[in-house]
């Protein structure tokens, strides 16, 4: 998978009813602007209603695909509830039913979480986000600590074994199960109604979304990158604000295009 800068271009329109599309949307940096701390993101007024209208327009084929736990997505978007893949695909909810993600915490991951939490507490500006089935170490408020944070996480990984991997993102790294993949989450949804048989559209902002882009492109779908940075996505919008404006237009009946 080679990343490059997409040029200005226009995605094919989906027609006025968008019945042929299935939408897969990242959360942080895509639907909402990034914040210094994960808990500080702000959901724009009316976003939940817009997503509901767009879901109806797509025959129900809209899902959130995020690194957040599904329960946290629900808190931010309450009272609106959507199909979702959380923790990069560790959790999946479809038609109100949790299909994956149940099970006790891994004792090894608990040990890693405690060690990285202690490390973060010794270094102001670092934040350890314990998601239960994964842990994320953030250095957005202390960029000078990136190398040390990466080294600490690498040492912690040695305690876990081959069933785990490190995934990097914007000022963050995450230790998560090796099977977790946004691409896998997208493919799983596309095997279920109402997503089955539709043309997938994946929208994201980070390197963590690139495998999702790759999956939909292999299936003849559309990949849209939000913000800057190299990507395999052919299409780009400059910011979450621009994407929310586009979502509103789509929900109001405009063709699904960039």
Explain what this protein looks like in three dimensions.
The protein has 258 residues and is an alpha/beta fold. It has 2 domains: 21-101 and 180-251, Rossmann fold, CATH 3.40.50.1000; 107-177, 2-Layer Sandwich (Alpha-Beta Plaits). The chain has 7 helices and 12 strands. The strands form 2 sheets. An 8-stranded mixed β-sheet has the order 5-4-3-2-1-10-11-12, with helices on both faces. Strands 6-7-9-8 form a 4-stranded antiparallel β-sheet, with helices on one face. Strand 10, helix 6 (210-218) and strand 11 (222-226) form a beta-alpha-beta unit. Mean pLDDT is 91; it is low at 7-17.
Brief synopsis:
The chain is α/β, with parallel strands linked by helices and 258 residues long.
Topology:
Elements: E1 21-25, H1 47-57, E2 62-65, H2 70-77, E3 83-86, E4 91-94, E5 97-100, H3 107-121, E6 127-130, E7 135-138, H4 146-157, E8 164-169, E9 172-177, H5 182-190, E10 199-204, H6 210-218, E11 222-226, E12 235-237, H7 240-251
Parallel strand pairs: 1-2, 1-10, 2-3, 10-11, 11-12
Antiparallel strand pairs: 3-4, 4-5, 6-7, 7-9, 8-9
Cofactor: Mg(2+)
Protein name: Trehalose 6-phosphate phosphatase
InterPro entries: HAD-like_sf (IPR036412), HAD-SF_hydro_IIB (IPR006379), HAD_sf (IPR023214), OTSB-like (IPR044651), Trehalose_PPase (IPR003337)
């Amino acid at each position: 998978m080679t990343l490059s800068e997409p040029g200005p271009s226009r995605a094919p329109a989906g027609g006025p009813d968008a019945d042929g599309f299935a939408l897969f949307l990242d959360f942080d940096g895509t639907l909402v602007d990034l914040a210094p701390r994960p808990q500080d993101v702000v959901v724009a007024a009316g976003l939940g209603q817009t997503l509901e209208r767009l879901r109806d327009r797509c025959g129900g084929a809209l899902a959130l695909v995020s690194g957040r736990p599904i329960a946290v997505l629900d808190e931010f978007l309450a009272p609106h509830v959507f199909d979702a893949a959380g923790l990069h695909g560790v959790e999946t909810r479809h038609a109100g039913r949790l299909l994956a993600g149940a099970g006790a915490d891994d004792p090894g991951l608990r040990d890693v979480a405690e060690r990285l939490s202690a490390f973060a507490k010794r270094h102001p500006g670092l934040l350890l986000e314990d998601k239960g089935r994964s842990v994320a170490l953030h250095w957005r408020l202390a960029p000078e600590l990136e190398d040390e944070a990466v080294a600490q996480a690498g040492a912690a990984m040695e305690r876990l074994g081959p069933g785990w991997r490190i995934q990097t993102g914007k000022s963050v790294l995450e230790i998560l199960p090796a099977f977790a993949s946004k691409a896998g989450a997208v493919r799983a949804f596309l095997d279920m109604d109402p997503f089955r048989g539709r043309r997938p559209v994946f929208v994201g902002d980070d390197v963590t979304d690139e495998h999702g882009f790759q999956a939909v492109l292999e299936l003849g779908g559309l990949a849209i990158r939000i913000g800057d940075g190299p990507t395999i996505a052919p299409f780009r919008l400059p910011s979450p604000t621009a994407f929310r404006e586009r979502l509103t237009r789509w929900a109001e009946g405009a063709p699904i295009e960039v």
